[in-house]
Amino acid sequence: MLNLHGNQIPAGGLGWGAHLRRDFLEMPLRSTVHARRFGQVFALLIFLAPFVPALEPTADVPDLGSRAAVLMDAATGTVVYAKNGDAPIPPASLAKLMTIHIALQEVEAGRASLDEIVELPPESWANNQPPRSSLMHLAAGHIVSLRELILGMAIPSGNDAAVAVALRFYPSVEEFVGRMNREARNLGLAQTRFVEPSGISEENMTTALEFAEFCRVYISRHPESLRDFHSVMEFAYPRADNVAPAYRSTVGTWRQRNHNTLLTRFEGADGLKTGYIDEAGYNIALTAARLETRLIAVVLGAPASYGGDRIRDADGTKLLTWGFSHFKTIRPPEPELPLPRIWKGKLKQVELIPGEPLVFTSFTDRGEGLLWETVLEDPLIAPLSRGSEVGFLILYDEAGELRRIPLVTATDIEQGNIFKRAWDSVGLFFRGLFKPKKK
Q1: What's the CATH number for 29-46+331-434?
Q2: Where are the domains of the chain?
Q3: Residues 6+ positions from 360 with CB-CB distance below 8 Å
Q4: Between the CA of residue 99 and those of 17, 195, 238, 244, 287, what are the distances in Å?
Q5: Does the pTM of the predicted model rise above 0.70?
Q6: What does the pLDDT profile of the chain (439 residues) look like in tens digits?
Q7: What is the distance between the alpha carbons of residues 90 and 278, in angstroms, rounded to a whole number?
Q8: Is residue 198 annotated as part of the catalytic site, yes or no?
Q9: How far apart are CA 274 and CA 31, in angstroms?
């Protein structure tokens, strides 16, 4: 498995060493000394960071009992730990996160409402679910909203709720599963596939790395779901308003606790989902936020035996504790970039923008008093198309370089007329005569 540098990640995990190289380019660039100290930033940028400093194993990499695990920075997609990250393992009830994701997509597109009442066909009733199913306890005649069905998946992990949601949006469960798989392909999850929406089948498949990336997308697109669904501790169903008036005096309400016990045992934890089937063992997708950093931990394949859930939870706790001890997300504000001279163009200057997101993952002890410097090609000669890479923005602190971001042109720069090109050619000739020679 590779990190974002294309380097191999050790099976036991990946940590960051104490030194980062600060290699300045050997190409004919000039260092435009625009060093500035960054101030505080409040904007949350959620992107995949294309650059991560070289990483070295640390001495205290967690030793996990589960078959596979990944720890990822939610803001940047940086993988800081991986154990068998590409091993295919059934997700079990983690599959319900994809079912919820599609339902929330439909709500956001205006094709559904969280407060609408959802029809419950017989396939969704609790008594028609496979043996040993986790249940919301849907039954014939119940009056239930889409919001309640999502809570029924997120908290008690109801397989009946997953079927009800699938049939709300498609004529058959099979067609809804087709949508799940198309969404997985759209997100680039090559090894993730589904055969039903609840996760009970061992034929559903994912990897720790792919599911961590899915969780990153899920959180970025539905941030309110952490508060509204995944960190809710208890779900009571059915209540009096879920049954016909004749039965409201005798309704039997099931009160079920959230299976993710780390919500109350790990500081900052606010999601996401647990899962279990015999063929996979105990799984969990965890997320927690502290200060400006949110981490995602996916643990798959804790032993399918007595105590396996405790091993899963211990592994999740180890990963997040280690992650917050070693890493943080740095979100620099937009820097004030120079307007470089353009030769032989209709315009004399061009606006520059960062070609990649500024947000990046760093050591916990790095990034204070952040400075920046621009390194630009010289000369810049028209024509230049929008997005042309013309240099770098280098972020560094007192210990050295932290991140190097390409700088690109914000607009197209067309060639000037023949007189402009001739005049600038003369200027470049004399500029070259008097330019200091490299030693």
Answers
A1: 2.60.410.10
A2: 29-46+331-434, 90-279
A3: 49, 51, 52, 76, 78, 329, 330, 395, 402, 403
A4: 39, 12, 22, 28, 18
A5: yes
A6: 324 332 333 333 333 332 222 232 222 333 333 344 333 222 222 233 333 443 444 558 899 999 999 999 999 999 999 999 999 999 999 999 999 999 999 999 999 999 999 999 999 999 999 999 999 999 999 999 999 999 999 999 999 999 999 999 999 999 999 999 999 999 999 999 999 999 999 999 999 999 999 999 999 999 999 999 999 999 999 999 999 888 888 888 999 999 999 999 999 999 999 999 999 999 999 999 999 999 999 999 999 999 999 999 999 999 999 999 999 999 998 888 999 998 888 889 899 999 999 999 999 999 988 999 999 988 988 898 999 999 999 999 999 999 999 999 999 888 888 887 888 687 778 777 766 665 5
A7: 10
A8: no
A9: 51
Catalytic-residue membership of 96: yes
Active-site position among 66, 124, 134, 157: 157
Residue set of the binding site? 273
CB 284 within 8 A of CB 298: yes
Please pick, among 66, 93, 225, 231, the residue that the annotation labels catalytic. Answer: 93
Residues of each annotated binding site for substrate: 273
Confirm whether 425 is a catalytic residue: no
Tell me whether residue 420 is exposed, middle or buried, using C-beta atoms within 10 angstroms of its C-beta: 0 to 12, 13 to 18, 19 or more: middle
Considering only CA atoms, which of 357, 344, 358, 349 is closest in space to residue 423?
344
DSSP label of 228: I
CATH class of residue range 90-279: alpha beta
Give the integer Cα–Cα distance in Å for 88 and 276.
15
* Among 66, 83, 96, 318, the one annotated catalytic: 96
Count of alpha carbons within 13 angstroms of residue 391, beta-carbon side: 24
Whole-angstrom distance, CA of residue 282 vs CA of residue 19: 37
As given in the structure block, the two tokens for residue 213 are 């990336």
Using CA atoms, how far apart are residues 144 and 374, in angstroms rounded to an integer? 58
Cα radius of gyration (the chain): 27
